Amino acid sequence: MPIYEYGCNACGREFETLVRSGTTPDCPDCHSTDLAKKLSVFATAASGGDPAPMATGCGSCGHPDGPGACAFNR
Ligand SMILES: [Zn+2]
Questions:
Q1: pTM surpassing 0.90?
Q2: What average pLDDT does the chain have?
């Protein structure tokens, strides 16, 4: 089920919410439905599982030299 991040155009609140088909999300503070969809957190998380090519590193190893730096230690 997708999770979307919204910004409320009425009060400026930013929040994440599950969106089921056929329903309209509203602001948890002022209950306005005047919202700007920002991004899908679900889609962002799902894109990080690709195998790491040798030349670019894994991008998520937490190496102190930065994401993907582990490639230089092989
Ligand atoms: Zn609001």
A1: no
A2: 77
